[in-house]
Structures are given as C-alpha cells and as structure tokens.
Amino acid sequence: MQDVFIVDHPLIQHKLTYIRDRNTSTKMFKELLEEVSMLMAYEITRNLELEDTDIETPLVPTRGKVLGGKKLAVVPILRAGLGMVRGIENLIPNVRIGHLGMYRDHDTLQPVVYYNKLPQDMHQRDVILVDPMLATGGSAVIAVDELKKAGARSVKFMALIAAPEGIRHFFDHHPDVPIYVAAVDEKLSEQGYILPGLGDAGDRIFGTR
Ligand code: URA
C-alpha cells in the first residue's frame, strides 16, 4: 500500500512554522505540538466506526451515534513521542497509552528496545504510533515490529515531520502501515537531523541540552 498522508490543514501548517522557529520557547513549542497532534488525530480518526444508540433529549426520545468499533491505543516512542500524547488524549480521553523506549547501540548503530509496556489486548485495538520526527526510520521500524509482535493488526504511524529517506526505509519493512505527517522535508543531514526540520524534538519539548 505505502500510503503517506500529508495533513496540510492551514491551522497545522501555521502552527508547524512556529514549531520549527528556533526562537519559539519551550512552553510554546510544547503547546503547539500538543495542538497539532490533536488536529492530526482528528484527521486520523476520521473513519472510526459509529453505532446507533437511543437517548432522550430534554424534549423527545431520539437516536444518536457513538463510537462503537475497535478500541484505540496510542503508543509514543520515548522520549519525544510523549509530546504528542496529551493532544490526542484531549480528543479521546479514554484512549489507552502504551510506551516504547529505544536507544541506539554504539557498536551496531541499531535501535535496541529497553522499555515495552503495551495494553494486553493489542490485537483488538487500532493503534496510533507517535513520534514527532521520522528521520532515518530505524526506531519507527523497530517500534512497529514490537507492536506487531504484541498482536497489533491495525497500526498507523503519526509524525510531525518526515525525511524522504525515513519514509523509504519504513516502507521497506512495513508497507502496510500508513504514515500521517504534517510535512515531508528535504533530506537528512549527515548527523541524521531532518533538514530544515526543527532541531532535536526531545530537547525542544523538555528544554534539555
Ligand atoms: N530526531 C529529532 O529530534 N530531530 C531530527 O531532526 C531527527 C531526529
């Protein structure tokens, strides 16, 4: 399939510009990332199944619709993915949240999973994996491996910015997982940063460095 959806709503593109700006404060960066995550989640959840339900308004009985299909799980890749969780929770307060942590092995340069805590019923859930930056794609590939090992059958990957190299690497391994991004940037730098990008997302969210 290899679907890349660029969620280019004007509000998202406006906020993304301030997210990229080096002069944006940590507080603003976090708030904007949260807002963009919520807007992107709105788009990603567009096809959720509904079921009919009978209710009474203060005036008459009527029939309404409520979410009735598969349950959702959101899984941030630590640590920058955490910055996208609250925005999604604001939209879907009951969403279950798993966590995946990875570090890069100095010798092999491959990501190694050091933390994996996922809901037990992953096979019954639509899973949204989140990480602001799809750079080389290494962590995202391993993260989806973990989700599939845990039984997930329906996964979407949501990032803020992707590099073309990362998209290619991701689809080499998981062509069945659609990618949702606010922008596809030009390229990766030699140090593995997305250009023009936004710098180190984790550092900008948590005010480290
Ligand atoms: N991770 C980041 O936080 N920024 C990049 O540009 C690439 C990977």
TrEMBL record:
<protein>
    <recommendedName>
        <fullName>Uracil phosphoribosyltransferase</fullName>
        <ecNumber>2.4.2.9</ecNumber>
    </recommendedName>
</protein>
<dbReference type="GO" id="GO:0006223">
    <property type="term" value="P:uracil salvage"/>
</dbReference>
<dbReference type="GO" id="GO:0005525">
    <property type="term" value="F:GTP binding"/>
</dbReference>
<feature type="binding site">
    <location>
        <begin position="199"/>
        <end position="201"/>
    </location>
    <ligand>
        <name>uracil</name>
    </ligand>
</feature>
<dbReference type="InterPro" id="IPR000836">
    <property type="entry name" value="PRTase_dom"/>
</dbReference>
<dbReference type="GO" id="GO:0004845">
    <property type="term" value="F:uracil phosphoribosyltransferase activity"/>
</dbReference>
<comment type="function">
    <text>Catalyzes the conversion of uracil and 5-phospho-alpha-D-ribose 1-diphosphate (PRPP) to UMP and diphosphate.</text>
</comment>
<dbReference type="GO" id="GO:0044206">
    <property type="term" value="P:UMP salvage"/>
</dbReference>
<keyword id="KW-0342">GTP-binding</keyword>
<keyword id="KW-0547">Nucleotide-binding</keyword>
<dbReference type="Pfam" id="PF14681">
    <property type="entry name" value="UPRTase"/>
</dbReference>
<dbReference type="InterPro" id="IPR029057">
    <property type="entry name" value="PRTase-like"/>
</dbReference>
<keyword id="KW-0021">Allosteric enzyme</keyword>
<keyword id="KW-0328">Glycosyltransferase</keyword>
<dbReference type="InterPro" id="IPR005765">
    <property type="entry name" value="UPRT"/>
</dbReference>
<feature type="binding site">
    <location>
        <position position="104"/>
    </location>
    <ligand>
        <name>5-phospho-alpha-D-ribose 1-diphosphate</name>
    </ligand>
</feature>
<feature type="binding site">
    <location>
        <position position="200"/>
    </location>
    <ligand>
        <name>5-phospho-alpha-D-ribose 1-diphosphate</name>
    </ligand>
</feature>
<comment type="pathway">
    <text>Pyrimidine metabolism; UMP biosynthesis via salvage pathway; UMP from uracil: step 1/1.</text>
</comment>
<feature type="binding site">
    <location>
        <position position="194"/>
    </location>
    <ligand>
        <name>uracil</name>
    </ligand>
</feature>
<comment type="similarity">
    <text>Belongs to the UPRTase family.</text>
</comment>
<dbReference type="GO" id="GO:0000287">
    <property type="term" value="F:magnesium ion binding"/>
</dbReference>
<feature type="binding site">
    <location>
        <position position="79"/>
    </location>
    <ligand>
        <name>5-phospho-alpha-D-ribose 1-diphosphate</name>
    </ligand>
</feature>
<feature type="binding site">
    <location>
        <begin position="131"/>
        <end position="139"/>
    </location>
    <ligand>
        <name>5-phospho-alpha-D-ribose 1-diphosphate</name>
    </ligand>
</feature>
<keyword id="KW-0460">Magnesium</keyword>
<dbReference type="InterPro" id="IPR034332">
    <property type="entry name" value="Upp_B"/>
</dbReference>
<dbReference type="GO" id="GO:0005737">
    <property type="term" value="C:cytoplasm"/>
</dbReference>
<dbReference type="InterPro" id="IPR050054">
    <property type="entry name" value="UPRTase/APRTase"/>
</dbReference>
<keyword id="KW-0808">Transferase</keyword>
<feature type="domain" description="Phosphoribosyltransferase">
    <location>
        <begin position="7"/>
        <end position="208"/>
    </location>
</feature>
